[in-house]
## 1
Amino acid sequence: MSDDIPYSLVEEVVRRALAEDLGGRGDVTSQATIPATAERSFELRSREAGILAGTAAASTAFSLVDEGLIVEWRLREGDRLEPGSVIASVQGAARSILTTERTVLNFLGRLSGIASLTRAYVDAVTGTGAKIAHTRKTTPGLRALEMAAVVAGGGARHRFGLDDAILIKDNHVAVCGGVGPAVEKARRFAGHMTRVAVEVDRLEQFDEALEAGAESVMLDNFTLDALKVAVERARDKGVVLEASGGVNLDSVRAIAETGIDVISVGSITHSARCLDLGLDA
């Protein structure tokens, strides 16, 4: 079980996934074709290269369907996969294993895909000092698992939700009448215990954010030249600079080389494809 995710949260998500698949009658195919007494051993294997994530959800699914199943993990969360890698072995009632198969593969494939894409971004910026972070662009109900998969892939945590950090976005700025007033109001609200971050889309707003005392500034869709200017203007001010907007694997290295601290990438959660994994008898 991942130390980052409470078991109760994982259990809730997995129970919903199993209920969605099993409906009211359960796995009627296995009931119709597999004797109740039949036992079998299966192996979870990777069919392509990537990074493993989702082991907590997979273990929980097996145990919720049948506590008697014996699951032995050969690889751990965050380990690198190659085609043919044996991830885990599962032994016990054949019906139970087959009943759980799709739910397990859905979690492992989805979350390993996120971890794998994250690792590609992390590898792309190696040596620059920049961190790759997730955003809140996650699948509703799966946020904790998807963000944990980003960490398994070597990424950094961003805010989890609206309640754990102040991040002033463009619409907040519009309602408040400018970056400066928005930051000033947020600082009065936050006191000394909460950092105040603000998103800006041009250098004039960036200067306003620094003047108002923002502790973290998100530079949205800045050109490389503008990022370099912002990095120079913020030097020795203790401000965390984050680049966002339109980041891809072709552009991320150049962005990191401007000296930015953090690069947030929505696509590592909202556009990661599932890794191809299988359960083989």
## 2
Amino acid sequence: MEPDFWHERWETSRIGFHLDVVNPWLVHHWPALCVNSDNRVFVPMCGKSLDMLWLLEQGYRVTGVEISRIAVEAFFSENRLEPLIETTGRFTRWRYEELEVLCGDFFDLDKADLGHLDAVYDRAALIAMPPVMRPRYAAHLDTLTNRQTRALLIALNYNQLEMAGPPFSVSADEVNRLFSKNYVIECLASTDVLEKNAKFRDSGLTLLREEIYCLTRREDKSRS
């Protein structure tokens, strides 16, 4: 979706995608990545997710990127964190201890903005993209990572004809098309979650699966 779409969502508080708790799939499946606790985790399109605080509490250095200043301000104010704020290039950095959020467009990021990334946590980025944007997202993410980077990806799988996104449906086949060139993909879980999500039932869905993937980068001697 275009930036104006997400700015409008945050301005009008249409943020049904936000969870008021830490995502239980993150807690349960994160150990599968085997990422050392002092490593850097990147959270694309992070919103005001509490998942970033959970990762920080586990000892990780956390970097998120979020296009909406409203979301970034809410994250720090609602969690009573006092950030150091500075503008660097196209981004405003909000930093608190070992956590920082870059306010700006994901597609403007380069490696210099992020440094060395050990892991990626994507709960809300890929499924926020319509089909035409997903290859661009996967390709740009690839430019930001390195041969050691691992990722935990959470996707939704449903009949797209029954409901318009976002969040959009992303099938296992599409995950493979987008990432299998550079990653070994393991599906850690595929769970029917329709009964727990009344808003999706009310939208007309007859099936909703939440699917969790571990992505491990294939060996590539040309990357550093």
## 3
Amino acid sequence: MARLKLITSLAVAALLSPVAAQAQTFKSSAGDLTVETIAAGLVHPWSLAFLPDGRMLVTERPGRIRIVTRDGKLSLPLADVPKVYASGQGGLFDVILDRNFANNRTIYFSYAEPFEGGARTALARAAIEGGDTPALSDVKVIYRQFGPPSRGNHFGGRIVQANDGNLFLTNGEHFTDRDKAQTLDNDLGKIVRLTPDGAAPNDNPFASKAGARPEIWSYGHRNPQGLAINPADGKLWEQEHGARGGDEINIIAPGHNYGWPLVSYGVNYDGSPVGTGKQQMAGVDDALWHWTPSIAPSGLTFYTGDLFKGWKGSLFNGALKFQLLSRLEISGGKVVREERLLQGLHERIRDVRQGPDGALYLLTDSSGGRILRVSPAK
């Protein structure tokens, strides 16, 4: 028994200890890059958010939120996270800090909530209590996706907060209910806009339309797993998975239709055409950029720092299938060039964030997931 306790203690200590791993070097247009492991031992980490003191909030898809110190120590899971549907692509998803976090200690997180034998995308808010053992308090579910449940696929789940405090949340179309992305009586395949309390703002595009869900901001989406506001002009940018080809980057406008499943630059998994087989059609916003074949993008951030020469204003995307970091160069509101980075890393990149130090931080999607820091080589 004593030996078993010793082994258990050593395992816990290894999990909570910072990682000493050899850094890797990669080539880029900004010079050599150093990629170092900040923390390891995470199970399918999905999202990362920086606290004001430099520590990080990290979600794990099985349903855990941890705090990670700057030297890589993992806290025990925070208590009182709601039960998640951790099956297929379901689980705990995104986490962000409220814009007024310094005063209200509020965070928002999305997850797959068990519902009618499957799950639906939900959004919760909570406060983080300080001290030596951080915990959640005042946990409240402020939004639940309206429509039939998913059986494990296409939840979306990315969150962003606008300057006015309102929240945007992406919802997937559950794969088997793709046609509902084109109807306004449900939230499948939609981006919704909510107040911090979960209500639908009165100026949402369908707030007064009979038969439409008032929270809908845009529709015709497949499985959006990237969302970011361009600091240059305040526009909302979105990234979503296609099927076989047709991963998209879109600029989101209120009330607009983004085409799925009527049009696509890809095809279905069996090779058959999507919809009528067209890539564009009247009344549908065309993708600003698309990847064919699919890279399976996840995580989206605009770079605003000075650490990487010439990269300010670039849009960074993680890639799951192609296991790389994609940098899109933006000029005049359009994508003019792509640079594919870290292709020798051989890791599924779930999320990408800019740190307070100007470095890029990545989450690797595996049962032994890591937090990676990307910086210019010294």
